[in-house]
Write a structure and sequence with these properties.
The protein is mainly alpha-helical. Helices cover 61% and strands 3% of the residues. The chain has ten helices and two strands, in the order H-E-H-H-E-H-H-H-H-H-H-H. The longest helix is centred in the C-terminal third of the chain and has 19 residues.
């Protein structure tokens, strides 16, 4: 199963002046850059991942300090950072962020089942066409393509982890048509599911 850990906070969660302090300069620059989307690689990636997983089990001041430690770790690993877009997302309002998170959450909980446009757009009380435009605007991805990415990623894990038949994996990944599943898999991975499994085990 695909999993994610999300830590949310507002820009003023430590007061309006905190990130204006000289000691916070590196973190402030990081937050300014974050509107472009940031991918973390290298040694910083494993360190941040470990701290993100650990923060779920902390409370009170320990949790706050760990969040600051995470921000500090990301800010000092400049060589390990890559921006994901040339256009900032700073114009997205908090309400929009909450809406997109709501959609992500629903998809991650239900992608193994059929999800219609009527169903997903109804979560935000939008008609399908309005929802599609909204989703693309805020994620820069087509909704159907995004859903296929999640499902095919899940299928890849199952192909690697066990000996479940490809037909079973198709249905367990949210598809109800093996031919369509094979087409989507090849479009994203440039291999058939069978070839993908063989290539992995050959390595």
């Amino acid at each position: 199963m695909a999993e994610s850990v999300v830590v949310q906070f507002t820009a003023e969660f430590l007061g309006e002046r905190f990130f204006g302090l000289p000691e916070s300069n590196a973190v402030r620059k990081l937050l300014d850059k974050s509107g472009l989307g940031i991918a973390i690689s290298g040694s910083s990636s494993s360190k941040v991942k470990e701290m993100m997983l650990d923060i779920q089990h902390l409370n009170g001041m320990e949790k706050l300090l760990r969040l600051l430690h995470i921000l500090h770790q990301i800010s000092i690993g400049a060589d390990d950072l890559q921006t994901l877009s040339n256009q900032g997302a700073s114009g997205i309002q908090m309400k929009d962020s909450e809406r997109i998170n709501k959609i992500y959450e629903y998809i991650m909980q239900n992608f193994t089942q059929p999800i219609s446009l009527d169903e997903i757009s109804g979560i935000l009380n939008m008609c399908p066409s309005t929802f599609c435009r909204y989703f693309r605007k805020h994620t820069r991805k087509n909704f159907t393509h995004f859903l296929n990415e999640i499902r095919i990623g899940h299928a890849c894990k199952m192909l690697i982890d066990g000996d479940v038949s490809i037909t079973e994996i198709c249905f367990m990944s949210g598809y109800n048509n093996i031919a369509y599943f094979n087409r989507q898999f090849k479009a994203l991975k440039h291999l058939t599911p069978k070839a993908f499994r063989q290539a992995y085990h050959n390595r």
